[in-house]
Design goal:
The structure holds 2 protein chains of 2 kinds. By secondary structure, chain A is mainly alpha-helical. Chain A is built from 2 helices and no strands. The longest helix of chain A has 10 residues. The N and C termini of chain A lie far apart (83 Å). In chain B, strands 3-2-1-4-8-6-9 form a 7-stranded mixed β-sheet, sandwiched between helices. The longest helix of chain B has 34 residues. The chains are: A mainly alpha, B alpha/beta.
């Protein structure tokens, strides 16, 4: 058996030209499969205070 | 009175079927558990008796669950889905993911399917997209050449496409996802195939019509029959998939209702439903339990059901084919991948929002790989019990010189063994009887030959079972110890194995069998006769693997696709002959003519 005979070098470009699937994008959003990791017991008992943020006060 | 046509078993029937299967399985498991406890109690209950009773409980449940599925398939009426010739409005793309496959064979299948669809004259759009994840540049170069040949022979420009990904992110699921993200908007339906899939045009058209008739249907799974097997092993699998599987599948369909399966190929999906519901995330952590989802199909079916879509297995669809492994080693290699994929689902059993049945499907997949280990643990516990148990005390009462003999529980032990073998063998025997009575056996060479084939299949499967047990055990341990099996390409060619190759692939099984038999003959000689059916096939594994991989010339194990091949199978052979010349093409079975033009 031998492979079909086409001019070498042209094949890749030819396939790209004639074989390219239609452009019609469709979004495929990632699904949630894992529950967010629950904080450990210690973290729940002694939550760390936020490093930044908190209630803003006016101060100019 | 003709039965009412309906597409899915109603909710009440599904609930009844599930309840019956669970009830039968629990009853069988508890009976086996109690019987084994009573047998163990005869000479005093100890830790090993309790452990073995528990192992018997779990193993019997799993065996009975399989048997219940078969019995359910035998005792329920097939769901009627009359096919119509309604015009097809939607656009369909046939997706053919390839991964280092032989392009000639694969693209010849596409040419055969394309001709078959065009023969249906539906007037609808059926495009083909070859989605190459091939990593070998040499094979990719051949893919491009043969794609051009396919285009030329099928006049396929504008409706047959080929693209190759630079990086095969997400493997097959990622390959499909990539297509949907770039081109999915052009199509209403996508028929997802494997490289070795082959389907009749009439079947594909019927699937599209069924999906158009039910706007809630998100995924329609057909039941692919294995075709093209030549080896002894391949033909056993082929026979079982054609003769027994449809009945088991009908039982499965009854239990699943609208929460059906996706087996990854020979399946029609509604593109927008699939896109909106089935974008698979990477799981946290490294493989084998983290990373890309390996066995994506079960997960996608669960996600579609979570989103409210119907996922259906239509076991009445004919004309859906695939090829299978030709030897035990190729089967074990594929099974290693499936093992990892199914055990990875342990991470997803608790995924938010899934339907209860979808979670149970994940558990079943896990059990399929864990359950054989229960038998191995049972054997090991039995040997340990013989070695470590204290001998029975015939004089338990100090002041009484009369011996107290253990109660004779032999009848219960035999009853237990008969029951367990019954669960293994009875459903298949009943299927053979049913097929003979209904006339279905005619396609398998007649009732007598189908029964003889079934008996031979049971015998040879029992011989192979210890070898599979060892491969599965190794796979499970590899996954549990964190070894990623990767993504090896499937070997779809001639599967014949020399003794040397078989020895290289299975010598560890021989050595394990020899050590096990020697150890038990020293430590527990009474168990040796019971262990021989397990240890002998292990010791002889290389011979058996090589023998099973050789061409089969038996008139048994005949299937309809051998006796009267479907038109699309014949056409595939014709195209292959035209493309390759006769030398490389496996002949169709004797008596099957290959007349007609070579061109699609």
């Amino acid at each position: 058996m031998s492979d079909p005979d086409f001019a070498p070098g042209d094949v890749e470009a030819l396939v790209r030209r004639v074989g390219c699937p239609p452009e019609a994008p469709l979004a495929m959003p990632k699904q949630r499969l894992e529950r967010p990791a629950a904080p450990g017991l210690l973290a729940r008992l002694f939550p760390r205070p936020p490093v930044t943020g908190g209630a803003r006060t006016s101060g100019g | 009175m003709p039965a009412r046509a309906h597409a899915v078993p109603d909710r009440r029937s599904v609930r009844r079927a599930r309840a019956a299967a669970f009830a039968v399985s629990f009853a069988a498991a508890v009976t086996a558990f109690v019987l084994f406890l009573q047998v163990g109690q005869a000479d005093g209950l100890d830790m090993f008796d309790a452990l073995r009773s528990l192992l018997i409980l779990m193993s019997t449940f799993w065996l009975a669950w399989g048997a219940a599925q078969g019995l359910l398939g035998l005792t329920t009426r097939p769901v009627l889905r009359p096919d119509t010739r309604a015009p097809i409005r939607g656009r369909t793309v046939v997706l053919v993911p390839v991964y280092n496959e032989d392009p000639v064979t694969t693209f010849a299948r596409i040419a055969a399917m394309d001709a078959s669809i065009r023969g249906e004259d539906t007037g609808a759009v059926f495009d083909f997209a070859i989605l190459s994840d091939t990593t070998s540049d040499a094979i990719a170069a051949r893919e491009r050449l043969w794609f051009l040949r396919l285009l030329a022979d099928s006049q396929g420009e504008g409706r047959m496409f080929y693209r190759r990904r630079d990086r095969n992110t997400g493997r097959k699921a990622g390959n499909i996802e990539d297509f949907i993200q770039t081109s999915g908007g052009s199509y209403d339906y996508a028929l997802i195939l494997d490289a070795d899939s082959l389907m009749e045009g009439a079947t594909i058209a019927a699937m599209v019509r069924r999906m158009e008739a039910d706007p809630a249907l998100g995924l329609l799974q057909s039941l692919p029959r294995i075709v093209g097997a030549r080896s002894r092993f391949g033909r056993i699998m082929q026979f079982s998939a054609s003769f027994h599987s449809p009945v088991f599948a009908r039982g499965l369909a009854m239990m699943q209702g609208r929460t059906g399966p996706f087996w990854g190929h020979n399946t029609l999906v509604r593109v927008r439903a699939f896109a909106a519901s089935c974008g698979l995330p990477e799981l946290s952590g490294p493989p084998p339990f983290g990373g890309h989802i390996l066995s994506h199909d079960f997960v996608e079916a669960a996600l579609l059901a979570r989103a409210g879509w119907t996922v259906r297995l239509d076991d009445d669809l004919e004309g859906s084919f695939e090829e299978g492994p030709e030897n035990i080693v190729d089967y074990a290699r594929r099974d290693r991948r499936w093992c990892q994929g199914n055990l990875q689902h342990a991470r997803l059993v608790g995924a938010p929002g899934l339907q209860g049945w979808s979670r149970w499907v994940f558990v079943q997949g896990i059990l399929a790989y864990i359950a054989p280990l229960f038998w191995l643990a049972f054997i090991l516990a039995s040997i340990a019990a013989q070695v470590l148990d204290a001998p029975p005390d015939y004089f338990p009462l100090a002041n009484r010189p009369v011996p107290v003999l253990p109660a004779d529980e032999t009848a219960k032990a035999i009853g237990l063994a008969v029951g367990i073998f019954g669960l293994l063998f009875l459903p298949k025997l009943l299927i053979a009887i049913d097929a003979a009575a209904s006339g279905r056996a005619r396609g398998f060479g007649g009732g007598g030959r189908a029964m003889a084939s079934t008996l031979l299949e049971l015998l040879l499967s029992s011989v192979m079972a210890p070898i599979f047990l060892m491969y599965q055990t190794r796979s499970v341990f590899q996954v549990l110890t964190g070894r990623d099996g990767g993504w090896p390409a499937s070997n779809r060619g001639d599967g014949r194995m020399t003794l040397t190759a078989a020895w290289a692939a299975s010598r560890w099984i021989t050595v394990t069998g020899l050590i096990g038999l020697t150890a038990s003959s020293v430590l527990a000689p009474g168990l040796v006769p019971w262990l021989l059916p397990v240890s002998l096939p292990m010791i002889l594994a290389p011979f058996l693997i090589s023998w099973f991989s050789q061409d089969s010339r038996s008139s048994l194990m005949a299937v309809p696709s051998e006796l009267t091949p479907a038109p699309v199978i014949r056409h595939h052979h014709q195209i292959l002959r035209a493309w390759r010349g006769n030398a490389d093409i496996p002949p169709l079975p004797p008596g099957v003519a290959c007349a007609g033009a070579a061109r699609p």
